[in-house]
Amino acid sequence: MTTRTFHGIVPPVLTPLTADGEVDTASLERLVRHLVESGVHGVFVLGSTGEVAYLTDAQRDLAVRTVVAAVDGRVPVMGGAIELTTARVAAQARALEAAGVDAVVATAPVYAINDADEIERHLRAVAAAVDVPLFAYDIPVRVHRKLSVDLLVRLGAEGVLAGVKDSSGDDVGFRRLVAANAAAGSPLALFTGHEVVVDGMLLLGADGVVPGLGNVDAAGYVRLWDLARAGRWEDARAEQDRLAALFEIVFQAQGRSGDAAGVGAFKVAAQRQGLIDSTAAAFPVEPLDDETAERIEAIVRAAGLLGD
Amino acid sequence: MTTRTFHGIVPPVLTPLTADGEVDTASLERLVRHLVESGVHGVFVLGSTGEVAYLTDAQRDLAVRTVVAAVDGRVPVMGGAIELTTARVAAQARALEAAGVDAVVATAPVYAINDADEIERHLRAVAAAVDVPLFAYDIPVRVHRKLSVDLLVRLGAEGVLAGVKDSSGDDVGFRRLVAANAAAGSPLALFTGHEVVVDGMLLLGADGVVPGLGNVDAAGYVRLWDLARAGRWEDARAEQDRLAALFEIVFQAQGRSGDAAGVGAFKVAAQRQGLIDSTAAAFPVEPLDDETAERIEAIVRAAGLLGD
Amino acid sequence: MTTRTFHGIVPPVLTPLTADGEVDTASLERLVRHLVESGVHGVFVLGSTGEVAYLTDAQRDLAVRTVVAAVDGRVPVMGGAIELTTARVAAQARALEAAGVDAVVATAPVYAINDADEIERHLRAVAAAVDVPLFAYDIPVRVHRKLSVDLLVRLGAEGVLAGVKDSSGDDVGFRRLVAANAAAGSPLALFTGHEVVVDGMLLLGADGVVPGLGNVDAAGYVRLWDLARAGRWEDARAEQDRLAALFEIVFQAQGRSGDAAGVGAFKVAAQRQGLIDSTAAAFPVEPLDDETAERIEAIVRAAGLLGD
Amino acid sequence: MTTRTFHGIVPPVLTPLTADGEVDTASLERLVRHLVESGVHGVFVLGSTGEVAYLTDAQRDLAVRTVVAAVDGRVPVMGGAIELTTARVAAQARALEAAGVDAVVATAPVYAINDADEIERHLRAVAAAVDVPLFAYDIPVRVHRKLSVDLLVRLGAEGVLAGVKDSSGDDVGFRRLVAANAAAGSPLALFTGHEVVVDGMLLLGADGVVPGLGNVDAAGYVRLWDLARAGRWEDARAEQDRLAALFEIVFQAQGRSGDAAGVGAFKVAAQRQGLIDSTAAAFPVEPLDDETAERIEAIVRAAGLLGD
Fold first, then answer.
1. What is the distance between the alpha carbons of residues C137 and C10, in angstroms, rounded to a whole number?
2. Whole-structure pTM over 0.80, yes or no?
3. Which partners does chain A have (≥3 C-beta pairs < 8 Å)?
4. Rounded to an integer, what distance in angstroms lies between the CA atom of residue C122 and that of residue C142?
5. Most D-contacting residue of C149, C181, C194, C204 (CB-CB within 10 A), to test interface
6. ipTM (interface predicted TM)
7. Please, what's the b/e burial string for D120-152 (b: 16 or more CB within 10 A of its CB; e: otherwise)?
8. Which strands sit side by side in the sheet containing C163-166, from one edge to the other?
């Protein structure tokens, strides 16, 4: 499996939970099979959308093994190693590898206050801990620092990194990354994590997308990908506009936390489609209230995802 | 002149200065004539790139009158009213109107710590002070707050605002703004201020662009615009890639302020092309040093803008 | 008048306004006379609390001339020159000097994105524009950059700056500034702008205080100062605790902007004591609602400032 | 052991490491014995200064057991449970309790994007997991949110929290917390984490201090505490000034990360005094270079801590 293996639509799969907070493996299997059958090009388990920060090691292991089994080799599986401490990130990466993922995704350290050199040593150590490829996960809204283009492309050229999942919201930076990567011979597979600007990001050269909203409308993102590949950019834009309208589900919960509103909306939308059983959120997050859920359901219905 | 008048490539024109810090009107005329003859669809005088924050009222007035005269009605002129105090912004707006601009551009208040209601009253008051259309200028990196989609579209629907210049770097927010504006009947002309993602922003529905780099390669941006209008998106992308490579000029000055590095690079690049006489910056900013200027010149030359 | 002239309790005087937004000179005179008769050691006109950012040049000039006349030489008057553009700050500084202030207070540039060298040139230029002493105003919440200890003490040692008004909320930085200033022979008069930690700041070596709450209870701050000077630190602490309880007035307005809540609370409290006629705020800020004003009045009453 | 047990000088003990990154238990024992014999009123193991974020579970367990044994019941031991995921924080808290700490210290969740209600549930769950008291650790520079006065005092009044370690650098907020806690009957023991404003914080009512610099000069902090208790505030201020000058060691490493510069400086200073063997830092941080270490040593020597 080469770096070029990683491309296209790779949803960060939700972790469905039971009412008592355990991983609902039946729902997770069902969701993952649905994603694969919708044509996604990979799945990303244990990302922020997968509530990785809220899960214990045992829950994480159960989730990743469930996903790997459900995917059954049909598409690559990427897994997030999100933790304090390089040693623990490396341990999580090894656990992911043992569970069968095809690539590991890791951020810069959190809580610690590190500079670029320290982040580089951290990423090198995680890469050295596993045989599968490592993707850097650039998500300043959670990690509170931005990975530099220079660092990423240098580590790509050396073979330390196989790619980047960019959730920085910095489109200027992403274009600079695409250009610098191209100039270096494209060692990195470059994914954007922003689900409403996929048309433009594919146009400028993104290799793929990790759309949380892909849990809700995987087929839509696959169509968007296919239209872009076919050079039908205005049709791609129309599909993206439809998906952007659907993305309004994450803005329905007023006065709730970012995680409650975002992941919560995806869970409601997936549950209403029968993809998962429960909208339960990971402790200490509470699920969205009924009124919010109804507004979300109306948006999902308007998008044509709930039948007539 | 209707709101639809405002579209396309509208460079935020540099304010060339003499060595003693006065407006170099001969250079400014030459630059503006060059821009118009390159096919731009408008010019924006007294924006951040025009060093508005560093100029006195008299210098501002001289700059805008010089630009209006040089444009000579061939394209619309937008002018920035950037000040503390609603009353002073309104006074600047009236001065711009008296000098002949076709639209005024204003930010939320700076220094003051205001909420959305106060920002709304501020924008309403500025709009009421002039007969020409008002554009809101959303630039959190300088104003330290973000204008909301709801506020902008509501003021657009009411006719208070004619458009938005978005320099927020928030592409997700910009797409939401485009969608909400479309849903409201497109009262707003929507411009992006980010010069390296123009292809994607035009694809998703931007009405125009205010590229600082347009001072350096106006013809390139006009080509990009024309390719996009023709639906030749991959050619547009190639042109944008070329312009993005040229944009690396703003990253050459190490250890300098944002204004010194950015505006300074544009001035060096314009001066090397003979568009302006001097690279002098507005007090208290010093021009870029020779070594940096040489790196910038090399990039401009590589872009084919300096002959053989 | 030497730098040592500037010390003690120097309230940033409110700018009372009429219902139609003009400077209420009668109220301003009354307030200032009350402050001086309460024993303050100076007054600061046209600071953030004085709504300087909302006033026109003519209003500013009227305010400062009213204050200078009301003070009548009994204590020093400091005036804020808060503006975009070094040239305009210098012009404001000259206007303040012409109106009779004893010192000018200026911030780093706003809106512009400058580095330390540029800020230094800015401060030098403002200092050179006037004969009265210049104080640097360090207020990152509004200016969005922090002035460094090294810059401030160096400019103090050179005689460019006579002092600092520190509203940074960075008590660690303030102590470092006090220590570095002492090591340099104490060229700077160092004022804290935070009204609820005055006891500790005086203990560690502050030369004075610019308490917005001093508009509401000037006598309390004078007592606090006198107790500190007398080395009666635990009594000073008790007085500060009383004043800190009174400061809760600024937290009463829920869902309002920082300026509406803070200056608004001071105006309500001053108006309830008869020190000013109206709680009108500067456009585009609206005054606090009646319910909030009643909560503020109750706190002021509990502090013993409204008689029985 | 009651809440009132927790007071005074409680250094966040360094975790000395060997060259290969393992916990140097001999040095840790020596350091802790030195601290206790210097008169500190408690020690805090596995805080930010203890490099908790860089240590594995096994290393953490070794560190806390070493500290508990070295303290031998002479003063209370507080231990940090710093982790992603409520469940893992609770597990760490139980491990600390099993190792013999007298109190656990926990932050709001990191990485996750939670609101106040979610943070409250998190803290309640951690408190419920152990029988020893829980302290909330408010450190926005690492956790990127601020705990509110209302939340802290409410949880204190309910017995969920026994205290707060405030490393927020928000002295206004800390005074409000002290006042609100007093009004509620002082359920919380309130510690400041800022080592250079201890005199003022004790004056305003802090119950204790967690000074990283206490690893370098514990006796100085104990003297400062004793002087404050004796009401000798000006002598306390002089001692604090001496310690503040010593704190300049953390500003000697130019161009290094916050953790490298801060913890690194404490380690150099402790090593030069013979309190620990090595200045090794936790991976991926490198120790400070020799030139920086020499500057630090000179400051430590000037403070009288290295003999003649």
1. 14
2. yes
3. B, D
4. 17
5. C204
6. 0.95
7. bbbbbbbbebbebbbbbbbbeebbbbebbbebb
8. C8-9, C208-209, C189-192, C163-166, C134-138, C103-106, C77-80, C43-45
